[in-house]
Amino acid sequence: MDIAKIEQVARDAMEQRQDPREREPGWLYYHGRRTAKLALWLCNDLGSGADRDTLYAGGLFHDIGKGADDHHRAGADRARKLLKGMCAPEELDAVCDIVARHCLRTHTPDLSEPVMIVQDADVLDHFGVIEPWLAFYWSGRHGESFNDHVRFKAGEGSIFHRRKMRSMLNYEPAKRMFDERLAFEEEFFARFHRVYREGV
C-alpha cells in the first residue's frame, strides 16, 4: 500500500470540501489525517498487531461520506472507488470496513480492533486544542455572541455531550488522553472567558 499516493487521493477528494457546513473547507481532510495519526498512536500504545497502513488509510478516509445520509456507508463506497487498484483486495476490504463501521459506537462485540481504534481516534480529535477552533468557527458562522458561547459551554447539553463521548471510548489510553484534552479545554475556556470580560 502506497500511503503517500493514498494521502494524495484523500487530499484531492477532501481538502476543499465543506461538508458538513458548520466546519471550514478542508476539515474533512485534516480531521481524517489527525484521526489517522491518533489511530497509529493508540495502536502503538496498545501494542496492537493491527496493520498500520490499513489503520492509517481507514482513519484518513473515515468521514469521506460526510454530507450524505448514512455517511459511513456512502463513505465506504466512495473509498472503495477511490482506492481501487491502490492496495491489495484484502487491504481495501479492511479499509472500507473501518469507514463503514467507524460510527457504530455501541460497543458491538463483532467490531474489529482497527474499527474500534479509529472510533476512539475520531472522538479524540474533536477535543482538546481543536475544540476552541470548532467552537469559535461555529459561533462565528451562526452569529452567536460571547454570552451565547458561555451559556453553551456551561450548559447541561455540553456537559452531557462530553460525558456521552467519553463513554463511547473503547480503550483506557484513549480515555486518559480524552481526560487530558478536556482538562486543557476547561483551563483554556476559563482563561478566555475571564480575559474577554476583564481584560486580564
Pick out its properties:
single chain; about 200 residues; 2 domains; 10 helices
Describe, in plain words, how this protein is organized in 3D.
This protein is mainly alpha-helical and about 200 residues long. It has two domains: about 5-105, Cyclin A, domain 1; about 130-200, no CATH class. Helices cover about 70% and strands about 0% of the residues. It has ten helices and no strands. Helix 1 (about 5-15) packs antiparallel against helix 2. The radius of gyration is 18 Å and the shape is globular. The model has no long low-confidence stretch (mean pLDDT about 90).
Brief synopsis:
The protein is mainly alpha-helical and 200 residues long. The protein has helices spanning 3-14, 27-46, 52-61, 71-83, 89-101, 113-124, 130-141, 146-154, 156-167, 172-198. It folds into two domains: 3-105, HD-domain/PDEase-like (Cyclin A, domain 1, Orthogonal Bundle), CATH 1.10.472; 130-198, no CATH class.
Here the CATH topology of the largest domain equals Cyclin A, domain 1
The figure for the number of domains is 2
Write down how many β-strands occur, each being a DSSP E stretch of 2 or more residues. 0
End-to-end separation in angstroms reads: 52 Å
Q: What string gives the helices and strands in order?
A: HHHHHHHHHH
| CATH level-four homologous superfamily name of the largest domain | HD-domain/PDEase-like
Structural class: mainly alpha
State the major sheet. none
The Cα radius of gyration reads 18 Å
The parts where pLDDT drops under 50 for at least 5 residues are: none
Q: Which bin fits the share of residues in helices?
A: over 70%
> What value does the average pLDDT take?
92
CATH architecture field of the largest domain = Orthogonal Bundle
* Approximate shape: globular
Name of the top-level CATH class of the largest domain? Mainly Alpha
Helical element count? 10
Q: Give the DSSP E fraction (strand runs of 2 or more residues).
A: under 5%
